[in-house]
Amino acid sequence: MDGNVVEVLFDAECPLCMREIRMLQRLDKRGRIRFTDITDPSFDPAEYGRTFDDVMERIHGRLPDGTIIEGVEVFRQLYSAVGFSRISSLTRLPGISSGLDWAYQRFAKNRLKLTGRCVKDESGACEVPRPA
Predict the structure, then answer these.
(1) Quick check: 116 pLDDT over 80?
(2) Are the beta carbons of 74 and 49 closer than 8 angstroms?
(3) What pLDDT digit, counting tens, does each position of 57-102 carry?
(4) Where along the chain do its domains lie?
(5) Residue 91 to residue 102: CA distance in whole angstroms
(6) Are 12 and 59 in contact (CB under 8 A)?
(7) What average pLDDT score do residues 3-17 get?
């Protein structure tokens, strides 16, 4: 991963996600984050031991040693990489950690609906849109 501290796998077609990614790109003055768009046709989730559905379901990242991280831990690593280590460490406190995990799980589960990208299947369930 070159000199990067963390790689983030992000959905470039998600407006809310892109707001966060653009902010992190501005803050990443030392190039410590590698940004990988999962909607790019050349993206291969198998390289990460995941399926497309897996990486669409929640945010994923990869550490320099190859460890795959998911959910709130990705944000902790990203914010630490741009210099917010103290704030990031606070998110590990018992009550805060479980609250953030709960909130992120709810957001991730409803992300496509919240961003107007839900494609209903025959049963009415929200289906993951595939990249072109």
Answers:
(1) no
(2) no
(3) 999 999 999 999 999 999 999 999 999 999 899 999 999 999 999 9
(4) 6-127
(5) 13
(6) no
(7) 90
| H or E stretch at 114 | helix 94-114
Average pLDDT in the chain: 89
d(CA 105, CA 18): 18
In this structure, are residues 64 and 4 in contact, taking their beta carbons and an 8 Å threshold? Answer: yes
CA distance 50 to 13: 19
Three-class DSSP labels, 4-18 = CCEEEEECCCCHHHH
Q: What is the pLDDT of residue 122?
A: 75
Total residue length of the chain: 132
DSSP string, 11-48: -TT-HHHHHHHHHHHHH-TT--EEEEETTSTT--GGGG
Tell the burial category of 8 from Cβ atoms under 10 Å away from its Cβ (0-12, 13-18, 19+). Answer: buried
